[in-house]
Amino acid sequence: MKEQIEVPWLHTYVEIWQQLLNSKRTPHAVLITGSKGIGKRSFALWLAGQHLGIDSVKVKPYHPYVIPQHADLRWIQPEDGKRDISVDQIRSLIEGLSLSSYEGIGKVAVIEPFNMININSSNSLLKILEEPKGNTLILLIADKMHKIPATILSRCHIIKINSPRKSQSLNFLDQYIPTDDASIKNSHLIEAPLLIDGQLDFVNKIDEFEKTLTGILLNGHFPLDFASKLSKEEIDLVFDWMLFFIYKVIKNNYSDTNNTDSASSHLSSIVDSQNLFLFFDKINLIRSKPRGSFNFQLSLEELLIDLRSGLSDMTLSDSYFDKLPKSLS
Questions:
Q1: Closest Cα partner for 266 from 284, 248, 280, 278?
Q2: Verdict on whether the full-model pTM lies above 0.70
Q3: How confident is the model over 65-117, as pLDDT tens digits?
Q4: Could you point out which of 77, 164, 215, 316 has its C-alpha 20 to 30 Å from the C-alpha of 225?
Q5: Backbone angles phi, psi at 74, to 5 degrees
Q6: Where are the domains of the chain?
Q7: 5-160, what's its fold?
Q8: CA distance 244 to 213
Protein backbone atom coordinates (compact mmCIF):
# COMPACT_ATOMS: atom_id res chain seq x y z
CA MET A 1 0.00 0.00 0.00
CA LYS A 2 1.18 3.52 -0.73
CA GLU A 3 2.32 5.77 2.10
CA GLN A 4 -0.61 7.42 3.85
CA ILE A 5 -0.78 11.19 3.30
CA GLU A 6 -2.82 13.73 5.24
CA VAL A 7 -5.73 15.25 3.32
CA PRO A 8 -5.22 18.94 4.19
CA TRP A 9 -8.49 20.36 2.84
CA LEU A 10 -10.37 18.18 5.35
CA HIS A 11 -8.86 20.10 8.28
CA THR A 12 -11.75 22.59 8.10
CA TYR A 13 -14.26 19.79 8.69
CA VAL A 14 -12.15 18.35 11.51
CA GLU A 15 -12.32 21.74 13.24
CA ILE A 16 -16.09 21.94 12.70
CA TRP A 17 -16.55 18.52 14.31
CA GLN A 18 -14.30 19.41 17.22
CA GLN A 19 -16.38 22.53 17.82
CA LEU A 20 -19.50 20.34 17.94
CA LEU A 21 -17.74 18.06 20.44
CA ASN A 22 -16.70 20.98 22.62
CA SER A 23 -20.23 22.36 22.64
CA LYS A 24 -21.67 18.90 23.37
CA ARG A 25 -23.90 19.18 20.30
CA THR A 26 -22.64 16.21 18.32
CA PRO A 27 -25.34 14.67 16.11
CA HIS A 28 -26.06 10.95 16.17
CA ALA A 29 -26.60 10.78 12.38
CA VAL A 30 -24.41 12.54 9.81
CA LEU A 31 -24.80 12.67 6.04
CA ILE A 32 -21.43 13.40 4.39
CA THR A 33 -21.88 14.65 0.84
CA GLY A 34 -19.69 15.87 -2.01
CA SER A 35 -18.29 14.66 -5.30
CA LYS A 36 -16.13 11.57 -5.67
CA GLY A 37 -12.43 11.69 -4.94
CA ILE A 38 -12.32 14.47 -2.35
CA GLY A 39 -12.07 12.53 0.91
CA LYS A 40 -15.57 11.79 2.23
CA ARG A 41 -14.60 8.26 3.26
CA SER A 42 -11.30 9.39 4.79
CA PHE A 43 -13.25 11.91 6.86
CA ALA A 44 -15.86 9.29 7.86
CA LEU A 45 -13.09 6.95 9.02
CA TRP A 46 -11.58 9.78 11.08
CA LEU A 47 -15.01 10.45 12.67
CA ALA A 48 -15.41 6.75 13.48
CA GLY A 49 -11.92 6.60 14.95
CA GLN A 50 -12.56 9.63 17.15
CA HIS A 51 -15.92 8.30 18.34
CA LEU A 52 -14.60 4.86 19.24
CA GLY A 53 -11.07 5.82 20.28
CA ILE A 54 -9.47 3.54 17.66
CA ASP A 55 -5.70 3.79 18.10
CA SER A 56 -4.88 2.87 14.50
CA VAL A 57 -6.83 5.85 13.12
CA LYS A 58 -4.56 8.85 12.75
CA VAL A 59 -5.05 12.27 14.34
CA LYS A 60 -6.03 13.77 10.95
CA PRO A 61 -7.87 12.26 7.95
CA TYR A 62 -5.51 10.53 5.53
CA HIS A 63 -5.38 8.76 2.19
CA PRO A 64 -5.42 5.93 1.36
CA TYR A 65 -7.70 5.05 4.25
CA VAL A 66 -7.80 1.56 5.76
CA ILE A 67 -10.97 0.34 7.46
CA PRO A 68 -9.88 -1.12 10.81
CA GLN A 69 -11.21 -4.30 12.32
CA HIS A 70 -13.21 -3.18 15.34
CA ALA A 71 -16.07 -4.91 17.13
CA ASP A 72 -18.16 -1.73 17.35
CA LEU A 73 -17.61 -0.52 13.77
CA ARG A 74 -19.82 -1.67 10.88
CA TRP A 75 -18.94 -0.47 7.37
CA ILE A 76 -21.73 -1.24 4.90
CA GLN A 77 -21.23 -1.26 1.11
CA PRO A 78 -23.06 -3.00 -1.76
CA GLU A 79 -22.21 -6.68 -1.78
CA ASP A 80 -19.96 -8.01 -4.54
CA GLY A 81 -21.75 -7.98 -7.87
CA LYS A 82 -24.66 -5.94 -6.49
CA ARG A 83 -25.51 -2.34 -7.34
CA ASP A 84 -27.65 -1.49 -4.32
CA ILE A 85 -27.34 -1.83 -0.57
CA SER A 86 -29.95 -4.47 0.25
CA VAL A 87 -32.71 -4.53 2.84
CA ASP A 88 -31.08 -7.61 4.43
CA GLN A 89 -27.84 -5.67 4.95
CA ILE A 90 -29.72 -2.84 6.66
CA ARG A 91 -31.77 -5.20 8.82
CA SER A 92 -28.60 -6.97 9.92
CA LEU A 93 -27.02 -3.60 10.72
CA ILE A 94 -30.03 -2.46 12.76
CA GLU A 95 -29.96 -5.73 14.72
CA GLY A 96 -26.26 -5.23 15.46
CA LEU A 97 -26.73 -1.62 16.55
CA SER A 98 -29.45 -2.67 18.99
CA LEU A 99 -26.89 -4.68 20.99
CA SER A 100 -24.65 -3.25 23.69
CA SER A 101 -21.23 -1.88 22.76
CA TYR A 102 -18.52 -4.54 22.99
CA GLU A 103 -15.95 -2.09 24.37
CA GLY A 104 -18.37 0.05 26.35
CA ILE A 105 -17.80 3.27 24.34
CA GLY A 106 -20.47 3.19 21.66
CA LYS A 107 -21.03 2.01 18.11
CA VAL A 108 -20.45 3.45 14.62
CA ALA A 109 -22.16 2.46 11.38
CA VAL A 110 -20.90 3.74 8.03
CA ILE A 111 -23.14 3.23 4.99
CA GLU A 112 -21.71 4.05 1.57
CA PRO A 113 -22.46 5.07 -1.04
CA PHE A 114 -25.82 5.97 0.47
CA ASN A 115 -27.17 7.14 -2.89
CA MET A 116 -27.02 3.45 -3.90
CA ILE A 117 -29.54 2.41 -1.25
CA ASN A 118 -33.02 1.40 -2.43
CA ILE A 119 -36.21 2.88 -1.02
CA ASN A 120 -37.08 -0.14 1.12
CA SER A 121 -33.63 -0.16 2.73
CA SER A 122 -33.87 3.58 3.26
CA ASN A 123 -37.26 3.27 4.98
CA SER A 124 -35.88 0.55 7.28
CA LEU A 125 -33.31 3.03 8.59
CA LEU A 126 -35.71 5.80 9.60
CA LYS A 127 -36.44 4.70 13.16
CA ILE A 128 -32.83 4.06 14.14
CA LEU A 129 -31.73 7.35 12.57
CA GLU A 130 -34.22 9.13 14.81
CA GLU A 131 -33.61 7.15 18.00
CA PRO A 132 -30.32 5.21 17.92
CA LYS A 133 -29.52 3.15 20.99
CA GLY A 134 -26.77 4.30 23.34
CA ASN A 135 -23.77 6.25 22.10
CA THR A 136 -24.28 5.33 18.43
CA LEU A 137 -23.00 7.39 15.50
CA ILE A 138 -24.42 6.68 12.05
CA LEU A 139 -22.46 8.04 9.08
CA LEU A 140 -24.05 8.10 5.62
CA ILE A 141 -21.78 8.89 2.67
CA ALA A 142 -23.37 10.13 -0.56
CA ASP A 143 -21.61 10.86 -3.85
CA LYS A 144 -24.90 12.23 -5.19
CA MET A 145 -27.84 13.82 -3.40
CA HIS A 146 -30.70 13.56 -5.86
CA LYS A 147 -31.89 10.08 -4.80
CA ILE A 148 -31.87 10.67 -1.05
CA PRO A 149 -35.38 10.94 0.43
CA ALA A 150 -36.39 14.03 2.41
CA THR A 151 -37.22 11.76 5.36
CA ILE A 152 -33.53 10.81 5.58
CA LEU A 153 -32.27 14.37 5.09
CA SER A 154 -34.47 15.67 7.90
CA ARG A 155 -32.95 13.19 10.36
CA CYS A 156 -29.29 13.91 9.57
CA HIS A 157 -26.73 16.59 10.24
CA ILE A 158 -25.35 17.33 6.76
CA ILE A 159 -21.65 17.97 6.17
CA LYS A 160 -20.84 18.94 2.58
CA ILE A 161 -17.22 18.37 1.62
CA ASN A 162 -16.14 20.87 -1.02
CA SER A 163 -13.60 20.18 -3.75
CA PRO A 164 -10.08 21.29 -2.83
CA ARG A 165 -8.48 24.40 -4.24
CA LYS A 166 -6.14 23.77 -7.17
CA SER A 167 -3.09 24.56 -5.02
CA GLN A 168 -4.23 22.03 -2.40
CA SER A 169 -4.73 19.33 -5.03
CA LEU A 170 -1.33 19.99 -6.60
CA ASN A 171 0.42 19.88 -3.23
CA PHE A 172 -1.30 16.62 -2.35
CA LEU A 173 -0.52 15.00 -5.71
CA ASP A 174 3.12 16.14 -5.52
CA GLN A 175 3.45 14.33 -2.18
CA TYR A 176 1.43 11.28 -3.13
CA ILE A 177 2.83 10.64 -6.62
CA PRO A 178 5.81 12.96 -7.27
CA THR A 179 5.81 13.63 -11.01
CA ASP A 180 6.37 16.34 -13.57
CA ASP A 181 3.67 14.84 -15.80
CA ALA A 182 1.55 17.80 -16.89
CA SER A 183 -1.31 15.50 -17.96
CA ILE A 184 -1.97 14.66 -14.30
CA LYS A 185 -1.82 18.27 -13.15
CA ASN A 186 -4.12 19.45 -15.95
CA SER A 187 -6.66 16.64 -15.64
CA HIS A 188 -9.94 16.23 -13.78
CA LEU A 189 -7.86 14.94 -10.85
CA ILE A 190 -7.37 18.58 -9.86
CA GLU A 191 -11.05 18.49 -8.86
CA ALA A 192 -10.89 14.96 -7.39
CA PRO A 193 -7.28 14.14 -6.46
CA LEU A 194 -8.06 11.06 -4.36
CA LEU A 195 -9.19 9.22 -7.50
CA ILE A 196 -5.56 9.05 -8.61
CA ASP A 197 -5.06 5.41 -7.49
CA GLY A 198 -7.57 3.95 -9.92
CA GLN A 199 -7.11 6.40 -12.77
CA LEU A 200 -3.38 6.83 -13.34
CA ASP A 201 -3.29 4.61 -16.45
CA PHE A 202 -6.22 6.49 -17.96
CA VAL A 203 -4.79 9.91 -17.09
CA ASN A 204 -1.57 8.99 -18.87
CA LYS A 205 -3.63 8.65 -22.06
CA ILE A 206 -5.28 12.07 -21.76
CA ASP A 207 -2.63 13.89 -23.82
CA GLU A 208 -3.26 11.48 -26.70
CA PHE A 209 -7.03 11.79 -26.30
CA GLU A 210 -6.94 15.58 -26.32
CA LYS A 211 -4.75 15.63 -29.43
CA THR A 212 -7.33 13.45 -31.17
CA LEU A 213 -10.11 15.71 -29.92
CA THR A 214 -8.21 18.73 -31.23
CA GLY A 215 -8.15 17.11 -34.68
CA ILE A 216 -11.92 16.60 -34.53
CA LEU A 217 -12.57 20.21 -33.49
CA LEU A 218 -9.99 22.03 -35.62
CA ASN A 219 -9.75 19.82 -38.68
CA GLY A 220 -13.16 18.18 -38.83
CA HIS A 221 -11.79 14.64 -38.44
CA PHE A 222 -14.60 12.11 -38.26
CA PRO A 223 -14.90 10.78 -34.69
CA LEU A 224 -16.15 7.20 -35.06
CA ASP A 225 -12.75 5.53 -34.59
CA PHE A 226 -12.11 7.71 -31.55
CA ALA A 227 -15.49 6.78 -30.07
CA SER A 228 -14.62 3.12 -30.56
CA LYS A 229 -11.30 3.61 -28.77
CA LEU A 230 -12.86 5.49 -25.87
CA SER A 231 -15.59 2.88 -25.49
CA LYS A 232 -12.95 0.37 -24.36
CA GLU A 233 -12.16 2.53 -21.33
CA GLU A 234 -14.16 2.60 -18.10
CA ILE A 235 -17.38 4.57 -18.55
CA ASP A 236 -16.98 6.85 -15.52
CA LEU A 237 -13.39 7.73 -16.42
CA VAL A 238 -14.36 8.78 -19.94
CA PHE A 239 -17.27 10.88 -18.73
CA ASP A 240 -15.11 12.46 -15.98
CA TRP A 241 -12.59 13.50 -18.61
CA MET A 242 -15.24 14.85 -21.00
CA LEU A 243 -17.00 16.78 -18.26
CA PHE A 244 -13.75 18.31 -17.08
CA PHE A 245 -12.88 19.28 -20.67
CA ILE A 246 -16.22 21.09 -21.05
CA TYR A 247 -15.74 22.64 -17.60
CA LYS A 248 -12.41 24.08 -18.80
CA VAL A 249 -14.11 25.50 -21.89
CA ILE A 250 -16.88 27.11 -19.83
CA LYS A 251 -14.31 28.50 -17.40
CA ASN A 252 -12.30 29.88 -20.32
CA ASN A 253 -15.42 31.69 -21.58
CA TYR A 254 -15.77 33.54 -18.29
CA SER A 255 -12.09 34.11 -17.58
CA ASP A 256 -9.98 37.16 -18.41
CA THR A 257 -7.05 34.84 -19.13
CA ASN A 258 -7.30 32.80 -22.31
CA ASN A 259 -6.71 29.08 -22.06
CA THR A 260 -3.65 27.92 -23.95
CA ASP A 261 -5.18 24.51 -24.69
CA SER A 262 -5.94 24.58 -28.42
CA ALA A 263 -8.99 22.30 -28.37
CA SER A 264 -10.79 23.99 -25.48
CA SER A 265 -9.80 27.48 -26.69
CA HIS A 266 -11.15 26.77 -30.18
CA LEU A 267 -14.41 25.36 -28.84
CA SER A 268 -14.91 28.32 -26.50
CA SER A 269 -14.40 30.70 -29.42
CA ILE A 270 -17.09 29.16 -31.64
CA VAL A 271 -19.71 27.88 -29.20
CA ASP A 272 -22.38 29.81 -27.34
CA SER A 273 -22.01 29.37 -23.57
CA GLN A 274 -25.62 28.20 -23.26
CA ASN A 275 -24.89 25.29 -25.59
CA LEU A 276 -21.86 24.34 -23.50
CA PHE A 277 -24.07 24.07 -20.41
CA LEU A 278 -26.60 22.02 -22.40
CA PHE A 279 -23.84 19.70 -23.59
CA PHE A 280 -22.52 19.37 -20.01
CA ASP A 281 -26.03 18.39 -18.90
CA LYS A 282 -26.35 15.95 -21.78
CA ILE A 283 -23.20 14.08 -20.67
CA ASN A 284 -24.52 13.93 -17.11
CA LEU A 285 -27.91 12.67 -18.30
CA ILE A 286 -26.27 9.81 -20.17
CA ARG A 287 -23.97 9.05 -17.27
CA SER A 288 -26.86 8.84 -14.80
CA LYS A 289 -28.54 6.04 -16.74
CA PRO A 290 -28.16 2.50 -15.36
CA ARG A 291 -25.31 0.55 -16.93
CA GLY A 292 -26.55 -1.66 -19.74
CA SER A 293 -29.54 0.55 -20.53
CA PHE A 294 -27.69 2.45 -23.27
CA ASN A 295 -24.97 1.70 -25.79
CA PHE A 296 -21.78 3.40 -24.61
CA GLN A 297 -20.02 3.52 -27.99
CA LEU A 298 -23.03 4.90 -29.86
CA SER A 299 -23.55 7.51 -27.14
CA LEU A 300 -19.90 8.56 -27.48
CA GLU A 301 -20.31 8.81 -31.24
CA GLU A 302 -23.27 11.13 -30.76
CA LEU A 303 -21.40 13.31 -28.24
CA LEU A 304 -18.30 13.58 -30.42
CA ILE A 305 -20.37 14.41 -33.51
CA ASP A 306 -22.00 17.17 -31.45
CA LEU A 307 -18.53 18.53 -30.64
CA ARG A 308 -17.40 18.25 -34.26
CA SER A 309 -20.34 20.42 -35.30
CA GLY A 310 -19.50 23.04 -32.69
CA LEU A 311 -22.64 22.09 -30.71
CA SER A 312 -24.65 23.98 -33.32
CA ASP A 313 -27.74 21.76 -32.94
CA MET A 314 -27.74 21.38 -29.16
CA THR A 315 -31.16 20.88 -27.61
CA LEU A 316 -32.11 19.00 -24.48
CA SER A 317 -35.48 18.00 -23.11
CA ASP A 318 -37.03 15.48 -20.76
CA SER A 319 -37.62 13.20 -23.73
CA TYR A 320 -33.90 12.90 -24.41
CA PHE A 321 -33.66 9.69 -22.37
CA ASP A 322 -36.02 8.00 -24.81
CA LYS A 323 -33.62 8.81 -27.66
CA LEU A 324 -30.49 7.33 -26.09
CA PRO A 325 -28.86 4.59 -28.16
CA LYS A 326 -30.04 1.35 -26.60
CA SER A 327 -27.67 -1.30 -25.35
CA LEU A 328 -26.82 -4.04 -27.81
CA SER A 329 -26.20 -6.47 -24.98
A1: 248
A2: yes
A3: 888 899 999 999 888 877 778 888 888 988 888 888 888 899 999 999 887 77
A4: 316
A5: -120, 125
A6: 5-160, 205-323
A7: Rossmann fold (3.40.50)
A8: 14
